[in-house]
Amino acid sequence: MKDDKDNKKKWSRRDILKASVALGAAGATPAFFMKDAWAENAIGNYPVKGKTLTLGFNVPQTGAYADEGADELRAFKLAVKHLNGEGKDDGMLSTMKPLALTGNGVLGKKVTYVTGDTQTKSDAARASAKRMIEKDKVLMISGGSSSGVAIAVQGLCQEAGVIFMAGLTHSNDTTGKDKRRYGFRHFFNAKMSGSALGPILKKEMGTERKAYHLTADYTWGWTQEESMRETTEALGWKTVKAVKTPVGAGDFSQYITPILNSGADTLILNHYGKDMINSLTQAVQFGLRDKQVNGKNFEIIVPLFSRLMAQGAGDNIKGILGSTNWNWALKDAGSQAFVKSFGAEYGAPPSMAAHTCYVQTLLYADACERAGTFYPPKVIRALEGFKFDGMGNGATEYRAEDHQCFKDVLVVRGKENPSSQFDLLEIVQEVPRSQVEYDAKIFGGDLGPYKG
Amino acid sequence: MEDILIQILNGLDKGGAYALIALGLTLTFGTLGVVNFAHGALFMLGAFCAVSTHKLLTLSVKVRDESITYFEAYKEQPYLEIWWGDTGTAIIDYAVPISILVTIPIMLIIGVVMERGLIQRFYKREHADQILVTFGLAIVIQELIRTFYGANPIPTAAPDIVSGSAAIGAFFGLSENLVYPWWRLIYLAFAGVIITAVFSFLKFTTYGMVVRAGMSDRDTVGLLGIDIGRRFTTVFGLAAIVTGLAGAMYVPILPPDYHMGMDFLVLSFVVVVVGGMGSLGGAVAAGFLLGLLQSFASMNEVKAIIPGIDQIIIYLVAIIILLVRPRGLMGREGVMDD
């Protein structure tokens, strides 16, 4: 007993000093180099329980953008089929490069989904997203057809530690001053629209124009106007007046009549959806397109075009210039694979909203595979700076600094002689990505932390 | 000067639409005492009568675009054009005016069915019950329309001959910039004709006189052995026709969608309240007044002085009128006074 007691190691002064140094060194070592520094603690709905991965598709199922929302939902469902290897073909899984997905779910889990209705209202969209996060335990939310909604849901997702892969949102703010670590946008933005349109406006309309802006009075409209003014004023155009119009004004005639006598020879309609349809229709009715001002033909520009919206404007869209994120008529392998797959499933071509939602779902799933985990911070890191191709817009990059995708942008024009009910926009130019890139710092904002 | 003239025209044109919608609503309230929140839906249904007429006239042979293999892309050629050539094209071109003939019987039927089938059961109930049931009905109608026609607006053009603008300035020796769309001028004239017809009907026909008597004192008219209930049903049908026609003719101005009724509902109530609940003349006067005010408030010169005034002017006027004269501009004594 005595021997045992004597043999028992006693802490010497030297041992204590050594231990102190070791502990101090460990404490001073950057967490980056330590094992488990990125320990996958619970965040949001991680870790995933069960054999399925649930995604939340939050789209406008009622309200003015319900048709666009329905098309987004079709695309999401198709993406899930492709991820699970249940589609008639593989869609863009056959063209995306690099690709970690195998068509056998994600990380061995079958992909399922729940849907919500944003109603294109921020409060309803947040309530729907909250329900998805808390009740349905979704790991990722995607969808939407409005920047106001996207920014609201993105903020909620950041707080909840759930990744948000934005649908159709075109405001600079989404990946600018309101950017979030957990939010990613594949869709282009107002700044990129302006940059893409600039050279074509110069070529077709010259450098001595007087522009009048009608602008939807919310985040998207403001940034669209700002970007178009920046572009056109750089060309030498003068801005005669920029007038904010209430969203959903219906009859825009009282905003159009002042244009007649304003001296402007160009009208820039920073409107989208129903507002664009109504204001364009009424501008044409007021004879703006038949006018000659300052010795020039009066021109109308719609910076953001969508095929679904072009249908609503009927013949009034013919000859009008604008920009779009993607069009089903593109001939690259990725676009063709998606159009073929979507067409076989639903009998119609996908809209640009459908395209971006489909791509976003695949990109999220692929990032999980590459990260080897659903742990959000690691998935975010897998998406940040990710370079890929074969998804419809040429070589694309998810810029790490602001989570904005950079890719080619389409400048389009309302087609004069459509060959079918879907053939409404002709592609004027596929503007290369290099022309629409900009410094991430110009819009400010802060992505925030990785851990929720 | 040109700016003022064009805003006056714009205000009258807007006012024409407001007056027509409010006239229908006032007829319903004045005769039946029902606060009909489905009134906007009647306006929307009228618009869709025009859309449906256009769709019917453009029933087409689909010619496949063979270059597209992934889905069914086709170009349509209307049967009327195949059968009758230019005559067929002309008939399609006049779809909106032709739709007036379709809208009248359809809206009459809808109005009568709505009144006999639902609203008459709520005559003696609280206004809150009436609002709830008619608002519910409006939602059902709009969702039915969305199911069949989708959520996107549906473009339906005016006839080619009146699709451009009238050179009013040049005609009067003023600036060439003073132009106004032909169809809006036609709409204004149309509103004038309908308003005159309704007033003449009520003023100069025996039927109309009985209805007006019923509006003033239903019980006494009933004691005289007149089935005033049946006449009120007819008036409800008439209100539906007026509102439906307002919607049908509005289609080239505003491509209709399923939600357009709700968009006009609040506005039409404001017009009626400002004009005076139950006052037909008040509804018409308030419609034009608010149209003019809204138009002038949207002038850049006015907005430079009071920013945002264009978005609140109508409601601001409504508040002032209700504060100063609760029964509205031309409201009958006793109505909305308590």
Task: Report helical residue fraction of chain A.
Answer: 25-40%
Biggest pleated sheet of chain A: 7 strands, mixed
Radius of gyration of chain A equals 26 Å
Distance between the termini of chain B: 45 Å
Count of domain modules of chain A: 2
Strand content of chain B: under 5%
Rough shape of chain B?
globular
Number of domains of chain B: 1
What is the correct CATH architecture of the largest domain in chain A? 3-Layer(aba) Sandwich
State the total count of DSSP E strands of chain B: 4
Overall, the morphology of chain A is globular
Instruction: Estimate what percentage of residues of chain A fall within beta strands.
Output: 15-25%
Biggest protein-protein contact in the assembly: A-B, 51 and 55 residues
Descriptive report:
With 452 residues, chain A is α/β, with parallel strands linked by helices. Chain A folds into 2 domains: 52-188 and 328-407, Rossmann fold (3-Layer(aba) Sandwich), CATH 3.40.50; 191-324, 3-Layer(aba) Sandwich (Rossmann fold), CATH 3.40.50. Helix content of chain A is 38%, strand content 18%. Chain A contains 14 helices and 17 strands. Chain A has helices at residues 2-7, 13-28, 66-84, 122-134, 147-160, 190-205, 219-235, 253-260, 274-285, 307-313, 333-346, 352-371, 376-383, 433-436; strands at residues 52-59, 110-117, 140-143, 163-166, 183-185, 210-216, 238-245, 266-270, 292-293, 296-297, 299-304, 321-324, 387-388, 396-398, 405-406, 409-414, 425-431. In chain A, the strands form 4 sheets. Chain A has a 7-stranded mixed β-sheet, with helices on both faces. The radius of gyration of chain A is 26 Å and the shape is globular. Residues 1-8 and 27-37 of chain A have low confidence and may be disordered. The relative contact order of chain B is 0.19. Helix content of chain B is 69%, strand content 4%. The radius of gyration of chain B is 22 Å and the shape is globular. Chain B is mostly helical and 338 residues long. Chain B has one domain (13-59, 96-162, 184-324). In chain B, helix 12 (260-275) runs parallel beside helix 15. Chains A and B meet through helix 8, helix 9, helix 10 and helix 11 of A and helix 1, strand 2, strand 4, helix 12 and helix 13 of B.
